[in-house]
């Protein structure tokens, strides 16, 4: 029929355009077998690398005053609920702080715990004016604690050359600041030696 001839002519012309390197004999053979495989090359998609968002530098954080506590917020009473939350967090962490609990196990967990909200006291220090400072830890940095006292004074206490005591449910733990020069996020992976001296 006339339509089939038109179709054959169209397919022949299409194959000739699509595969210009193929000879007419090969195209005719493909048509007689009625099996046509068109070659198609996939273009490789180049994956765009995601740019990592860079955080603020230390200088930018200081300029933006990101870690500064406003004077009107420097009140001991405001942070008492934080201390209550911290106590519950430690009780859960130490499975209740029972009287028969092993002290060294509690000590090891406290050394790795988050101390934001804990009430600490400076018991020993090379700086006499630091001894006796008691308050809630508001911020912990690598080298210092920021503590709010009952007198609503914000104290920046260095860890170096200071020994801190921490009391909870009758259990008293001592922290030697000189061996505690780590950020809170780094302490969870740190292995501490429980035996040792706290002499300054």
UniProtKB/TrEMBL annotation:
Spell out the molecular function terms from Gene Ontology: ribonuclease P RNA binding
Acetylation: present as a keyword of the record? no
**What is the protein's major site of localization?**
nucleus
UniProt-listed SUPFAM superfamilies: Rof/RNase P subunit-like
Protein localization: Nucleus, Nucleolus
Which Pfam families would you find in this protein's record? RNase_P-MRP_p29
A cellular component term, taken from the record's GO annotations:
nucleolus
Q: What biological-process GO terms show up in the record?
A: rRNA processing; tRNA 5'-leader removal
Superkingdom of the organism of origin = Eukaryota
Q: Which UniProt keywords apply?
A: Nucleus, Phosphoprotein, tRNA processing
Q: Where is the signal peptide?
A: none
Xref: Gene3D superfamilies: Ribonuclease P/MRP, subunit p29
Self-association and partners? Component of nuclear RNase P and RNase MRP ribonucleoproteins. RNase P consists of a catalytic RNA moiety and 10 different protein chains; POP1, POP4, POP5, POP7, RPP14, RPP21, RPP25, RPP30, RPP38 and RPP40. Within the RNase P complex, POP1, POP7 and RPP25 form the 'finger' subcomplex, POP5, RPP14, RPP40 and homodimeric RPP30 form the 'palm' subcomplex, and RPP21, POP4 and RPP38 form the 'wrist' subcomplex. All subunits of the RNase P complex interact with the catalytic RNA. Several subunits of RNase P are also part of the RNase MRP complex.
What is this protein for, i.e. what is its function? Component of ribonuclease P, a ribonucleoprotein complex that generates mature tRNA molecules by cleaving their 5'-ends.
Question: Family assignment?
Answer: Belongs to the eukaryotic/archaeal RNase P protein component 1 family.
Q: In its UniProt entry, what is this protein called?
A: Ribonuclease P protein subunit p29
What is the name of the gene encoding this protein?
A: Pop4
